[in-house]
Amino acid sequence: MEREFLNIVEANQGIIFKVCKLYRNSKEDQEDLFQEIVLQLWRAFPKFRKESKVSTWMYRIALNTAIAMFRKHKIEIEFNEYTPKEIYSNQESEQSENEERLFDAIRTLNQTERAIIALFLEGFNYKEIGEITGITENYVGVKINRIKEKLKIILK
């Protein structure tokens, strides 16, 4: 089970990095959030029934963890002997100035808007975004249009 989990996280770690970048500004905070997300994924993994795509499941856990930690005043991360140790790897990616501007703009959005636009940019369809965020497919479309308009204004 541990090997399967590590393979899933390694193959999809970009999801976690993206959520961390959207919800935290500093590298240290991003690393802390990354570890917390992986811990929550590990805890949830035995209950994952593979009824949805792995990416959908990971986004749901990652976004809920990021939002929950955003609300906390003090970050506490517990590690126990069952937490795989080899998960975190540095993923240094060259990002253009435009990508950085986009991330900065997205960070100004509220938590729900960040989650929706992150999923949209990742290529999820409206139905999948609705399943992950708990809103209707039609409302996802409305929210995405509003978010796009906000981002246009911010990026001008």
Automatic annotation (TrEMBL):
Molecular functions per Gene Ontology: DNA binding; sigma factor activity
Keywords linked to the UniProt accession: Sigma factor, Transcription, Transcription regulation
RNA polymerase sigma factor 70 region 4 type domain span: 101-151
Domain of life of the organism encoding this protein: Bacteria
Biological process, per Gene Ontology: DNA-templated transcription initiation
Pfam family membership, one: Sigma70_r4_2
Positions of the RNA polymerase sigma-70 region domain: 8-74
Coiled-coil ranges from the UniProt annotation: none
Gene3D superfamilies: 1.10.1740.10, Winged helix-like DNA-binding domain superfamily/Winged helix DNA-binding domain
Record-stated family: Belongs to the sigma-70 factor family. ECF subfamily.
Protein known as: RNA polymerase, sigma-24 subunit, ECF subfamily
Organism: Cyclobacterium marinum (strain ATCC 25205 / DSM 745 / LMG 13164 / NCIMB 1802) (Flectobacillus marinus)
